[in-house]
Amino acid sequence: MNHLDLQSREIASGIYLLKGDSYLCKQTQEIIKDKLQVGEFGISFFDEENFDAINILNACNQFSFFDEKRLVVVKALSKELNSKDKDMFLAYAKNQNANCVLLLVDDFDSKCFDFLKKAEVVDCKANENFLLNHIKSSFEKFGKVADIEVCKYLCSCCLSNLTKINVEVKKICDYLGSGNIVDKQTIDLLVAKDTETKVFDLTDALGNKNKDKAITYVYQMLESGEPVIKILGLINGQFRRLMFAKINKGSNQDLAKTLGCKEYAITKAKEQANKFGAKQLKAIVNLLMETDYNIKSGAMSQENALYYLILKIINS
Description:
Largest sheet: 5 strands, parallel
Structural class: alpha/beta
Strand order of the largest sheet: 2-3-4-1-5
Strand content: 5-15%
Helix content: 55-70%
Oligomer: single chain
C-alpha cells in the first residue's frame, strides 16, 4: 500500500509497517493518529533507547480510559530482534487487540521488522512527481517561484531526501528575502553538496568530455577529505547504474526497486546514460575493474589510479 492510499482509507486496528523516507513516515504517522482520533494518553512511543518487547505488547493490550483506540509507535532498531522478541511479536500478530494500531516505523531500511509478515507494509517512498510537486508548492508557500528545471536541480542536490529538501527550501527562501525567483545559482551558493551529488556532477562532466570540470570535481572531493577509495566506489556504482539504465527498458519505479535506489536516481542515470553508448559503458565498467586490480596489486597508488580512470573515460 502506498502512503497516499491512507488518505481515503479507514484505519481501525492492525499492524502497519512504514518503510521509506523519514519525512513521509512521520507525515503518515500523523495521518494515522488523526484518523484514530487518539489523544496524548492513548499513544505510546518506543525506540532504540526504551525498546522492550514485553512493555510494547503490554501497551498494545492496555485498555484506554480516555480514547476508544490506542496507537503504539515503535521505531526500527539498528540490529535484528532476538528470537524471543520475534516470537512475542508473532504471537501478538495472531491475537491482536481490536482497539489498537501497532505502528512499526522503519525509515532507514533496517529490515528488523520484516519477519512480521502479517504487518501491512506502507510504502513511504517519494516518486519523482511527488518530489517535484512538493518542492514547487513549498516555494510557492513562501511566495517564491521555481521552474521545473530548478526543482529538479534542487532535488538532485538533496539526493531526493525530503527532510533535506525542506531544510534547503527554507534556507533559500530566507536568503532571497523579498526576491521571488529561485535559480540554480542561488542553489549552488547555499546548498552544500555531499560526495554522492558531486559524483553526479562528475559523471555529467565525463559525458560532456569536459576534462577541466572533471578534474576540478575530483580535486574538490579530495580537498574535502573524502577517501579516494570511497570516491572510486561511488564512481563505480554510478557507472554500473548507468549501464543498467541503458540496457533495461523497465519503468523508473521498477528499476529503482530492482537497484534499491530512489526513483530520481534512475531518472538521472537514464539522462546521463544518453551521453554514452552501450559498448562505451561496458568498456568503462571493465576499466573500473582494471583500476581496482591496479590498486590492489600495488601497480598504482589510489590517487594516481583515480586520475588515470578519469582521463581514460574522457578519452574513450
